[in-house]
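Notebook B, p. 112. Complex prediction, attempt 2.
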Amino acid sequence: MSTTLEITNLSKDYGDFRLDNISFSLPKGYVMGLIGPNGAGKTTIIKIIMNLIMKQSGAVKIFGKDHQKFEVEVKKRIGFVYDTPNFYEHLNLKQLKNTVAPFYENWDERTFNDLIDRFKLPLNKTLKKFSKGMAMKSSIAMALSHHADFIIMDEPTSGLDPVVRRELLDFLRELMVDENKSILFSSHITTDIEQVADYITYVQDGKLVFSKTKDDIFEEYALVKGGNEMLDLDIRKGFVGVRTGAFGFEGLTNNLKETKELLANNVIYEKASLEDIMFYTNLNLKTAY
Amino acid sequence: MWQLILKDFRVNWIYQLLSLVLLFLISVLYMYAALQTKSSVDPDIVIYFMVVLLSTGITSFLFFCVDEISNTNEIIASLPVSRKQMVTARYTTTIVQVLLALGFHFFGGIIGAYLQDGLDSDILMPIYDFRLWVTIAFIVFIFSSYSYPLLYRFGLFKGMLIIGIGHFVLYAIFIIAMILHQTVWGSIQEVIFWMLNLSEWISLPVFITVSVLIMFGTLLTCINIFKNKDI
């Protein structure tokens, strides 16, 4: 299986924030969700991949090639969707398209027009009059009109109303049908990621918590609920994070098999959502500090 | 890289047109007013060329300013272009903008004179001298050459501040040196007159060569700065 993106030991130090030794890879034809709370380092990782920010150490390979040495060649095959589409706001969409299209040999006017029709975007309205949803849709139309093999989206759904968000996620699902396209999609809205991603990479405070397939994550992680009397120190240690209340405890395990061996049927096991995983991992890190 | 150059003119044509029209009007009005009072060549024409020099110098940063203010470097850098191409294209568009600005100034001056029916006035003689325009163009190129590394290194506002303070300090030193050390000023004057008295076929090519070398040197410096810069 060939890899579209391979990141090895990536580090970047800002003084007050450090992206620390991040490694993960995305196989060709899959969707990866990059999750983490605000300020976790998601945008920094994406900007390093796009060579907008310089890495301090580590390697980034896209389509098996170094992203800096083969920058132009690699970027021809990438469609990039920004978190805040800072386009030239005095232009209209048609003028913007006329500016961007000549940079791509594979620009497909028909695909662009289809997407514009589908997203119901006005070609002659200035971009400063676009809503956030329209700006995001135009950014997506731009990113997909040159038949990119690798689509990178930085928080594409944040700030969008539920209807537009749903439309966008449906559209991503359609894109996933094409087995040659890989997608890296960052968001702190975990439900969006759960719907579309095959792989999930979770970063927190600049550190990699995990990078696994969604199936593996939901096999390994689970919510465990039981009485407080069961919660001794050894059992507590086995959880990623635990919350206790008057009626018992709720904890997150990242080793469901082992926890089941230990606690058997004396507790209740529930499927953990990505939000649960983020919440309890965050809780654990806070306790550790 | 060709696309990057075209991009600057496509995207910023409205700002460019406004700046060029402004320069054109400055020249029309200045020349119209200068000929109305029937002034002598000096100092009016000297002041005119100072205005041309300053206004052209300022507008040479037009494209850089628009991209920095509208924060669009991120978008451009995500297109299939290298940082080296981005900086080289910026230098190229600056050269084109300077040449256009001088062209608009030239025709503005001529039209201003025509409106006063003074196309054959003595004041206009230096305006018809192409060497003067070439010299001004290359002075602006030198100005851009040492300004761009500062702008790329420190960004638009900090960079402009450093350039402004740097100029002020240099002028202050120059004036103080003039007042306090007549001998130093005398030597500077001697050098200036020696250069002016050189044959135009020696001084102009030497000046152009030195300017081009300075531009090339600072282009490489800017590429180096921009290659390692976070956008």
